[in-house]
Amino acid sequence: MMEPVKVGVLGLGTVGAGVVNLLARNGDEITRRAGREIRVTRAAVRSLDRARDCETGAIDIGTDARAIVEDPNIDVVLELIGGDELAYELVMAAIANGKHVVTANKHLIALHGNEIFAAADEAGVVVSFEAAVAGGIPIIKAIRESLAANRIEWVAGIINGTGNFILSQMKFEGVTFEQALAEAQKLGFAEADPTFDVDGIDAAHKLAILGSIAFGIPLSFDRIVTDGIRGIAADDIEYAEELGYRVKHLGIAQRQETGVAMRVHPTLVPERALLANVEGEKNAIMVHGDAVGPTAYYGAGAGAGATASAVVADLIDTARMMSVDPSGRVPHLAFQPDQITEEPILESPDFVCGHYFRVQVADKTGVMAEITRMLAELEIGIEAILQKDPPTAEDDARVIIVTKPAREGTLHEALDHIKALPTTRDGVVHYRVAEFED
Ligand SMILES: NC(=O)C1=CN([C@@H]2O[C@H](COP(=O)(O)OP(=O)(O)OC[C@H]3O[C@@H](n4cnc5c(N)ncnc54)[C@H](O)[C@@H]3O)[C@@H](O)[C@H]2O)C=CC1
Ligand SMILES: N[C@@H](CC=O)C(=O)O
Ligand code: NA
């Protein structure tokens, strides 16, 4: 048997402890798969006084992460501290020191991946990041390797466990947004800064990675249109359900005629669709390849065990390919580095999808006809209409419309006309609708 692979872990929090526990529990089987033992020999933590959720007796633990990335006895650096600045510095230093890297850090990869992978290619090392997208679900491997024969048309999914957990808890347990978020934090799903989860930023980090490996484009986090789950009104969830939809927070990367649409937002999904029925912290991603058609990947997107599952799989891959000529390795972003090409990334007015909107109007004869006429003038088809009494304002009515797929800029043109009607009250609520073939 070959020498053990010596791993230096940066950060022994939820995921770090999960990895140590998993290696201890399944060590023999992991060695049989990897061909050599994977051994955590060093770890850096922020505070030596904190109790750990794993057995650390055999690990040399200190507080100096830089010492690990420079240690000649370390083969693989496992970055699990999160965030982008320090993690970036440590990962770049590890690469410069000729070490392979495994990370669960989507923030780091989404913002700095282009540079990190170029440095890794140059140094002949590999940076693996399966855990960074949808935790334990093997979605990076599926897209990069198993679907490599396809031209990928779209990727759509629930890629933030905390956000999905909050929406499910609010719906099924009747708890408030704040209570559900506190529970997600307690369970270890949420990011250190949970605004990343609730404002869609974490999902956008992951979507940047998915879009890049699906389409062969550079990581483009700052081009993603991002809305979170804050402020979704219970009324809209109810109306959507009455119309046969569920509200889910989706990340969508989709080829359109004029470019690539990359967006993260609350979305109305037909109630029978697979993605509509994913609850709790579970993630689910659909990938459509031109040859294979739609495919689905479901599982735990967060949590110590599930995330460790992906991290350790990357460690096993790393152990196996350490002796492989770099030119024979799977490219970091699925396409050969010199084949990554820019494509136009669309702004929101160019998105083509269905739309849900709610507008409050004076409850007078002819108002509904006026609204539908304005949509018709702009050739926006109507899928469904609902009229409801608002909770207050007895003389008003709420009009809720779901349109057929239309250019978003055209929809906003129609909404501007509708808002300008003398019978329209302030404020229009708008959500996108997505219908993806299962
Ligand atoms: N928790 C989850 O379910 C998932 C987490 N991730 C990612 O995994 C990474 C780690 O996440 P968690 O384990 O949940 O976070 P965590 O907050 O539980 O653990 C991070 C640990 O790093 C330590 N740390 C911070 N600065 C340090 C430094 N300079 N030196 C040494 N240690 C330092 C912290 O004290 C903390 O214990 C993040 O990038 C996160 O986004 C990815 C998928 C799922
Ligand atoms: N905070 C993230 C953790 C996994 O990436 C989530 O909730 O999905
Ligand atoms: Na994954």
From TrEMBL:
Its EC number is 1.1.1.3. L-homoserine binds at residue 191. Coiled coil: none annotated. Keywords: Amino-acid biosynthesis, Methionine biosynthesis, NADP, Oxidoreductase, Threonine biosynthesis. PROSITE patterns: ACT, HOMOSER_DHGENASE. GO terms for biological process: methionine biosynthetic process; threonine biosynthetic process. It is an enzyme of class 1 (oxidoreductase). Pathway: Amino-acid biosynthesis; L-methionine biosynthesis via de novo pathway; L-homoserine from L-aspartate: step 3/3; Amino-acid biosynthesis; L-threonine biosynthesis; L-threonine from L-aspartate: step 3/5. Pfam families: Homoserine_dh, NAD_binding_3. NADPH binds at residue 106. Signal peptide: none annotated. GO terms for molecular function: homoserine dehydrogenase activity; NADP binding. The keyword NADP applies. NADP(+) binds at residues 10-17. Residues 356-432 form the ACT domain. The active site is at 206 (proton donor). It comes from the Bacteria. PANTHER family: HOMOSERINE DEHYDROGENASE. Belongs to the homoserine dehydrogenase family. This is Homoserine dehydrogenase. It comes from Salinisphaera hydrothermalis (strain C41B8).
